[in-house]
TrEMBL record, chain A:
Cellular component terms (Gene Ontology): plasma membrane
Highest rank taxon of the organism: Bacteria
Compartment list: Cell membrane
EC number(s) per entry: 1.3.5.1
Protein name per UniProt: succinate dehydrogenase
Gene3D superfamilies: FAD/NAD(P)-binding domain, Fumarate reductase/succinate dehydrogenase flavoprotein-like, C-terminal domain, Succinate dehydrogenase/fumarate reductase flavoprotein, catalytic domain
Keywords associated with the record: Cell membrane, Electron transport, FAD, Flavoprotein, Membrane, Oxidoreductase, Transport
Catalysed reactions, as listed in the record: a quinone + succinate = fumarate + a quinol
Similarity field: Belongs to the FAD-dependent oxidoreductase 2 family. FRD/SDH subfamily.
Main location per the UniProt record: membrane
Species lineage: Bacteria, Pseudomonadati, Bacteroidota, Sphingobacteriia, Sphingobacteriales
Transmembrane segments: none
UniProtKB/TrEMBL annotation, chain B:
Record keywords: Membrane, Transmembrane, Transmembrane helix
Membrane spanning residue stretches: 16-39, 59-84, 105-125, 162-181, 202-225
Name the UniProt record assigns to this protein: Succinate dehydrogenase cytochrome b subunit
Taxonomic source organism: Pedobacter changchengzhani
InterPro entries documented for this protein: Cytochrome_b-558, SQR/QFR_C/D
One GO cellular component term: membrane
Coiled-coil residue spans: none
C-alpha cells in the first residue's frame, strides 16, 4: 500500500535506534564549522535543536516571530512531561511507554518512531535537570511524579502547572548560551515566508523582518522547521494568538507532504467560551483530572447550584462508562464523553456547554490524611475540607487562580466548569524516521511534524516529543544528510532560486495589501473557525465535511476579494502578518476536511459519526485505513494522496479499551 | 584595585557604597543622639558638656570624625551619580504613574529627602560644629567645660530655627524608615527568619532617634529643661 | 460598558509619539483587556485607520509578551496578573484608561505600545545558563535537591520576562529580572560551578544595557505578575559581593 519510504532502519525494534546511532555517518569538527543549518521556530523542538546543533559545532541561524525565543508557545504547556524512568517503582519501562503511546494514538503512529521516543525520554529528564530546570521534588530530594490520562503508572515529571515554561526556559538558556558564544545567530521578530529549493534540496528560507518589513534571504545546507501546530485554524483554541501554520504550509506548497491533517486533539478540560468577543481558550491542565471528578446532573436542565445537587443525583459519567481508567481516560475519549452529555441536554452553566470538574471528594480525602498526620484521627468534614483544599492549593494553586481570574468564580468553593477545546494537532508535515520531509534537507520536528502521536496524543507527551526531537534525535539524524553535503560551499543568496522564492513571497504580501476590501482579517478567521469547529471538530460526518469543503472554498474566494489589510508591507504591520497566516489556514482547513472525508473510520481525535460502536466508541477500520495519509500539494489548491502503510510487529493491534 | 575589577563601579557596587555608608551614618546617629540626650539630665548641661568635651578632645573620635565626613560625602556623591544614571535609564517619563499602588512615597523620594537633609545639615553644622571647632564656644560651665549647652539653649530660642530643625528631623525620619532596611537588603542581608527583625528594628530606630532629636529643640524652646 | 481610552501612538522608533483619545462602546465585563483592544482595532480597521500595535501572544499569562502600562501601573490595577489576564470587570462604565508602553532606555519603543525587550535576552546570553551540552547529563536522581531549595528555585524561575519590573521601577532597573535568574541557578547544586562567574557577567551585561539602579522601593515585587520576591535581589547582591571580594577568580 505504501508509496513513500519512511527509511526505518532494519532490525529489532529495540535495537533500531542504537544501531542507527552507531552506524550513522559522522561529520568531522572542521567540516561542521562550515555547514550551516537554519532552524525555524524556537519552542521546545526548535530551541533544543538549535542549541544542540550549535554545541556540536554547526553554524546555526534560528528564527522566531516573537520578540524573544523564550516566548514560543511551548511555554504554555502546564501539566508535565513523560519519561520511562520508573522512579516510582510501579512497573514502568521503555516498552510500556511505547505501548501506551501507540495505544493512546489509536494505532495510527509509527512503531519505530514511538519506540525511539520512549527510549530517549529518560535522557530528556536528565538533560533538563542538569540545565537547572526546577522540576518538582519530594522531601527526600528526589523527583516527584504524577499520573496523566491513558496510563496506569506515574511517569509524569512536572514543575507545578508550569512545566512547559520551565522546560522551554531550559532550552532557551541553552540556546542563549550558544547565541552568546556567537554560534547561533538569532533572528527574533522574523517570519519565514518561503522555502528555497535548489536542485530539489532545501537550501534556505525567505524571511520577513517583522519590524521593518524587509525581506531577507538566508542560506542553509539544511532547514529545520520546528514551528508548532495549526490548532488556530479553528480560530478559538488553546494556542497562542500568533501560532500559525505558515512555515509548514509554505513547505507543503514547496513539495513537502502534509500528513494526517484531520487528526486534531480536542482537550477535555478547558474553560468554556463566555461570549462572541472571545479571542482564545484557556486550558486547565489535564493534571487536574488526577484529583477532580467530572460530573453532570442526572436531571436534564438542572438549574440548581452544583453544591446543592446531592451525590445520588450526580452522574460521574466517566467513572460510570470507564471504570478502569475513570476520570483519567485519554483526552479524545473524555472530550467526546463531555460532548455526548451536553448534546443530550445535561450540560451546565449558562451556555449548557460545560460539565463540572469537582475537587471536593479528593480534597476531603487529602484533608483526612493531613488531619491524621497532625494527630487528629476523627476530623469532621469541614476540617477535612479546609485541610484538603490547602493540599489542592499547593498542587494546582496557579491553575485555580487562573480559573478565578478568567471566570470571576472561586473554584475552591464551587466546582470548575469545563468544556473541550482545540488544543493540539497530531497531523503535520510528513517526515521519515530521520525527521526529514520528502524534500531533501528539509526537516521537521515537534508538533509541526506528524510522527509520534498517531490519531491522539496522550497527556504530557508533547513536551517529551518536542525535546526528544530537538535534543536527541534530529542532531543525530541530520548528520546522515549533512555528511554528504560537506563539499557544498555556502550558496550565495543571489542565486536565482532565492530571487524566485522572494518574488513569490513579496507577491503574496502585495496581493494582500492590494485587495483593499471591507472586512478585517479576523472576520475571515472567525468564519473559518466556525466552519471547522462545527463540521470538522469533535465529531464529523461525510455530509458536513462536504459542506465544509464547499464553504471553505467560498470563504477563500471571499477572502481574496474582500479582505482589508491596512498599512504597507514596509513597516511593522500586524494585520498583514495575520492576513498571510489566515490565507494559509484557509487552504489548510480545506485539506483537513478532505483528509477527514477520506478517512472512513473513527480513530483517536478523528471521530466520524458514521463509524462508531453501539456504545458510541470510535470504530477503526484497520483493514483499509491503517496508513498515514500524506498529501501532496498540487497547483491551484488541489491535493493528491500518498499512503504510508503502518505495520505493527511488536504490538497487537486491538480495539482500544479503557473500561 | 585591579583584583577587584569593577567591584564598586557596577550598579550593585555603587549601591554597596550607599548601603555601607548609610549603615555607618546610622551608627553615628546613635552616638550623636546618645551624647545629645545627656541634656535631659536637666542639670544645666553639666553632664552634656562633659560628653561634648570628650567628643571634641578624644583623638580617636576626631579621627572618626574625618572618616564620618568621608562617609557622608561618599554617600552624597554616590547618590548624585546614581540619580543621574537613573534619570538616563528612563529618558521619556510616563504621563500617568500610580506609584502609591506599589511602594511608599518616601522610598521613592530618597533623593528629595536626602537633599532636604543636606540643606538642614548645612544649617546645623554652621550652628554647632563650626562654633565648637572653629569660632569657639564663648562661655564655660560650672565645671569649667566649654558650655555648648548654653549655645544650644540660645540657638533654640529662635522659632524659625526650631521649625527648620523639626523639618530636617522629619526628613531624617522618613529617610531612615526606608534607608535602614534598604541598606540591609542592598548588602544582601535578607533572611526569612530575620527580615521581620530588621524591618521592625528599622522602624523603631527611625522613630526613636527622630523623637529624641526633635525633643531637643522643643525642650529648649519651650523651656522644658533649664 | 463605555470607555475612553488614551493610547500611546508612535509610528516607529524614530517618530515622536503622543496619547490619542478613543471612545469605545459595548465592552463586556467578561472581556480581557486585550480583547477590548481587539474591539478597538476592529473599529479602527473598519474606519480605515491603522490598528494599535501591541505585543501579545499566549493570552494566558505565561509567555510574557503582553506589556501595557495601564493607568500608571504595568499590567493594570490587579495584582499578580498580566495584561492578557486582566478583565474588564476591573473597570467601571465611563472610566478613562491611559495606556502607555513600557518606558525605559533599555526598552526602546518599536511602534505604539510595542517595545524592544531584547536586552533581557542579552543578559541571559551573558550567563543565565548552566554550561552543560546535550548528552552530558547524569541520572536526574543522582543529585537529590532539598525540597526547600527546589521550590525556591522554582519560584524564582517562574519569571516570565515581561519587563513589568523595569517598567514600574522609578529607575527602570532590571534587578528583579536578573536576580531571579541568578537566584534560580544559585539555589541549585547544578548551578554552583558557574555561580560566581554568572553573577558577575550578568550584572555587567545588565549595566551595559542601560538599566537603572535598584533603590529597594519594592515596586517591582508588588507589580510582578508572578510574585517574584525581592529576596532574589538580596541573594544576587550577596553573590556579587562574594564574587568580587571572596572568590579568587577575577573577571
Amino acid at each position: 500500500m505504501s508509496d513513500i519510504n519512511s527509511n526505518i532502519p532494519e532490525g529489532e525494534l529495540t535495537n533500531k535506534w542504537t544501531k542507527f546511532k552507531s552506524s550513522v555517518p559522522l561529520v568531522n569538527p572542521s567540516n561542521k564549522r562550515t555547514l550551516e543549518v537554519i532552524v525555524v521556530g524556537s519552542g521546545l523542538a526548535g530551541a533544543s535543536a538549535a542549541a544542540t546543533l550549535a554545541e556540536m559545532g554547526y553554524k546555526v541561524k534560528c528564527f522566531c516571530f516573537q520578540d524573544s525565543p523564550r516566548r514560543a508557545h511551548s511555554i504554555a504547556a502546564q501539566g508535565g512531561i513523560n519519561a520511562a524512568k520508573n522512579y516510582q517503582n510501579d512497573g514502568d519501562s521503555t516498552y510500556r511507554l511505547f505501548y501506551d503511546t501507540v495505544k493512546g494514538g489509536d494505532y495510527r503512529s509509527r512503531e519505530a518512531n514511538v519506540y525511539r521516543l520512549a527510549e530517549v525520554s529518560a535522557n530528556i529528564i536528565d538533560q533538563c535537570v542538569a540545565q537547572g530546570v526546577p522540576l518538582a521534588r519530594e522531601y527526600g530530594g528526589l523527583l516527584d511524579n504524577r499520573s496523566f490520562g491513558g496510563v496506569q503508572v506515574q511517569r509524569t515529571f512536572y514543575a507545578a502547572g508550569q512545566t512547559g515554561q520551565q522546560l522551554l526556559l531550559g532550552a532557551y538558556s541553552a540556546l542563549e548560551r550558544q547565541i552568546g558564544m556567537g554560534k547561533v545567530e538569532m533572528y527574533t521578530r522574523h517570519e519565514m515566508l518561503e522555502i528555497v529549493k535548489i536542485d530539489g534540496k532545501a537550501r534556505g528560507i525567505i524571511a520577513r523582518n517583522l519590524i521593518t518589513g524587509e525581506i531577507e534571504r538566508h542560506f542553509g545546507h539544511a532547514v529545520v522547521l520546528g514551528t508548532g501546530g495549526y490548532g488556530n485554524v479553528f480560530y478559538l483554541s488553546t494556542n497562542a494568538m500568533g501560532s500559525n501554520v505558515t512555515a509548514a504550509w509554505k513547505a507543503h506548497k514547496s513539495g513537502a507532504y502534509f500528513a494526517n491533517p484531520c487528526y486534531t486533539q480536542i482537550h477535555p478540560t478547558c474553560i468554556p467560551v463566555s461570549g462572541d468577543h472571545q479571542s482564545k481558550l484557556t486550558l486547565m491542565s489535564e493534571s487536574l483530572r488526577n484529583d477532580g471528578r467530572i460530573w453532570v446532573p442526572m436531571k436534564k436542565g438542572d438549574e440548581r447550584r452544583p453544591q446543592d445537587i446531592p451525590e445520588e443525583e450526580r452522574d460521574y459519567y466517566l467513572e460510570r462508562r470507564y471504570p478502569a481508567f475513570g476520570n483519567l481516560v485519554p483526552r479524545d475519549v473524555a472530550s467526546r464523553a463531555a460532548k455526548e452529555r451536553c448534546d443530550a441536554g445535561y450540560g451546565v452553566g449558562s451556555s449548557k456547554l460545560a460539565v463540572y470538574l469537582d475537587f471536593k471528594a479528593n480534597a476531603i480525602r487529602y484533608g483526612k490524611i493531613e488531619a491524621s498526620k497532625a494527630g487528629n484521627h476523627h476530623p469532621d468534614e469541614a476540617t477535612c475540607l479546609r485541610l484538603g483544599l490547602e493540599v489542592i492549593k499547593a498542587k494546582y494553586g496557579n491553575l485555580f487562580d487562573m480559573y478565578a481570574q478568567i471566570t470571576g468564580e472561586n473554584p475552591y468553593e464551587t466546582p470548575m466548569r469545563i468544556y473541550p477545546a482545540v488544543h493540539y494537532t497530531m497531523g503535520g508535515l510528513w517526515v521519515d524516521y530521520n525527521l526529514m520531509t520528502n524534500v531533501q534537507g528539509l526537516y521537521c520536528t515537534g508538533e509541526a511534524n506528524f510522527s509520534d502521536h498517531g490519531a491522539n496524543r496522550l497527556g504530557a507527551s508533547a513536551l517529551m516529543q518536542g525535546l526528544a526531537d530537538g535534543y536527541f534525535v534530529l542532531p543525530y539524524t541530520i548528520g546522515a544528510y549533512l555528511s554528504k553535503e560537506i563539499s557544498v560551499k555556502a550558496i550565495p543568496t543571489d542565486h536565482p532560486a532565492f530571487a524566485e522564492a522572494e518574488e513569490r513571497a513579496v507577491g503574496i504580501l502585495n496581493k494582500l495589501i492590494d485587495v483593499k476590501g471591507t472586512k478585517s482579517v479576523d472576520h475571515f478567521h472567525k468564519r473559518l473557525g466556525h466552519i471547522m469547529w462545527e463540521k470538522c471538530g469533535m465529531a464529523r460526518n461525510a455530509e458536513g465535511l462536504n459542506e465544509a469543503i464547499r464553504d471553505i472554498r467560498a470563504l477563500r474566494a471571499d477572502f481574496w476579494a474582500n479582505v482589508r489589510v491596512p498599512g504597507t508591507t514596509t513597516e511593522l504591520n500586524t494585520e498583514l502578518e495575520k492576513a498571510g497566516r489566515v490565507a494559509d489556514f484557509i487552504e489548510l482547513g480545506e485539506l483537513m476536511c478532505i483528509d477527514a472525508l477520506d478517512r472512513n473510520e473513527s480513530c483517536g481525535g478523528h471521530f466520524r459519526e458514521e463509524y462508531q460502536t453501539p456504545e458510541g466508541e470510535a470504530l477503526r477500520d484497520d483493514a483499509n485505513y491503517q496508513y498515514v495519509a500524506a498529501w501532496e500539494f498540487k497547483e491551484g489548491v488541489n491535493f493528491e494522496l500518498h499512503k504510508e502503510a503502518l505495520n505493527y510487529e511488536n504490538i497487537k493491534v486491538a480495539q482500544r479499551s479503557y473500561k | 584595585m585591579s583584583g577587584f575589577g569593577n567591584a564598586f563601579s557596577s550598579s550593585i557596587g555603587k549601591k554597596f557604597i550607599m548601603g555601607i555608608t548609610g549603615l555607618f551614618l546610622i551608627l553615628f546617629l546613635i552616638v550623636h543622639c546618645g551624647i545629645n540626650a545627656l541634656i535631659f539630665f536637666n542639670d544645666g548641661g553639666l553632664t552634656f558638656n562633659v560628653g561634648a568635651h570628650f567628643m571634641a578632645s578624644n583623638w580617636l573620635i576626631r579621627a572618626g570624625e574625618i572618616v564620618l565626613f568621608i562617609g557622608l560625602l561618599a554617600h552624597i556623591f554616590q547618590a548624585l551619580r546614581l540619580t543621574l544614571q537613573n534619570r538616563k535609564a528612563r529618558p521619556i517619563s510616563y504621563t500617568v504613574t500610580d506609584g502609591n499602588a506599589n511602594s511608599k512615597w518616601y522610598s521613592r523620594s530618597m533623593g528629595l529627602l536626602g537633599t532636604l537633609l543636606l540643606i538642614f545639615l548645612v544649617v546645623h553644622l554652621k550652628d554647632f560644629w563650626v562654633v565648637s571647632r572653629f569660632t569657639g564656644i564663648p562661655s564655660t560651665d560650672a565645671q569649667g567645660h566649654e558650655d555648648l549647652y548654653a549655645v544650644m539653649r540660645e540657638k533654640f530660642q529662635d522659632p524659625v530655627r526650631v521649625g527648620i530643625y523639626l523639618l530636617g528631623i522629619i526628613s531624617l525620619c522618613y529617610h531612615l524608615l526606608h534607608g535602614f532596611a534598604s541598606a540591609f537588603q542592598t548588602l544582601g542581608w535578607n533572611h526569612s527568619k530575620y527580615n521581620g527583625i530588621i524591618k521592625g528594628a528599622g522602624i523603631w530606630y527611625s522613630i526613636i532617634i527622630s523623637i529624641l532629636f526633635a525633643a531637643m529643640p522643643i525642650a529648649f524652646h519651650f523651656g522644658l529643661i533649664q | 460598558m463605555n470607555l475612553t481610552l488614551k493610547v500611546w501612538r508612535q509610528k516607529d522608533n524614530k517618530a515622536k509619539g503622543a496619547l490619542v483619545d478613543y471612545k469605545i462602546a459595548g465592552i463586556s465585563p467578561d472581556m480581557s483587556f486585550l480583547e477590548m483592544f481587539d474591539v478597538l482595532n476592529e473599529d479602527l480597521i473598519n474606519k480605515g485607520d491603522e490598528p494599535v500595535v501591541f505585543d501579545h501572544d499566549c493570552r494566558e499569562g505565561i509567555c510574557g509578551m503582553c506589556s501595557m502600562f495601564i493607568n500608571g501601573r504595568p499590567h493594570g490595577p490587579k495584582d499578580l496578573v498580566t495584561t492578557c489576564q486582566l478583565h474588564m470587570r476591573s473597570f467601571k462604565d465611563g472610566d478613562t484608561i491611559v495606556v502607555e508602553p513600557w518606558r525605559a532606555a533599555a526598552f526602546p519603543v518599536v511602534k505604539d505600545l510595542t517595545v524592544d525587550r531584547s536586552a533581557f535576552d542579552r543578559v541571559i546570553a551573558a550567563g543565565g545558563f548552566i554550561s552543560v551540552n546535550t548528552g552530558n547529563a547524569q541520572d536526574a536522581n543522582n543529585l537529590p535537591i532539598p525540597k526547600l531549595n527546589a521550590d525556591a528555585a522554582f519560584e524564582a524561575a517562574a519569571c516570565i520576562g515581561c519587563g513589568a519590573c523595569v517598567a514600574t521601577c522609578k529607575n527602570a532597573s532590571a534587578m528583579l529580572f536578573v536576580s531571579a535568574k541568578i537566584s534560580q541557578l544559585a539555589l541549585l547544586p547544578q548551578g554552583q560551578p558557574e555561580r560566581y562567574r554568572r553573577v558577575q557577567s550578568m550584572v555587567a551585561q545588565m549595566d551595559a544595557e542601560g538599566f537603572g539602579n535598584c533603590t529597594n522601593t519594592g515596586a517591582c515585587e508588588a507589580e510582578c505578575p508572578k510574585g517574584i520576591s525581592l529576596e532574589n535581589i538580596a541573594r544576587m547582591n550577596r553573590d556579587y559581593a562574594s564574587a568580587k571580594f571572596v572568590s579568587e577568580e577575577t573577571m
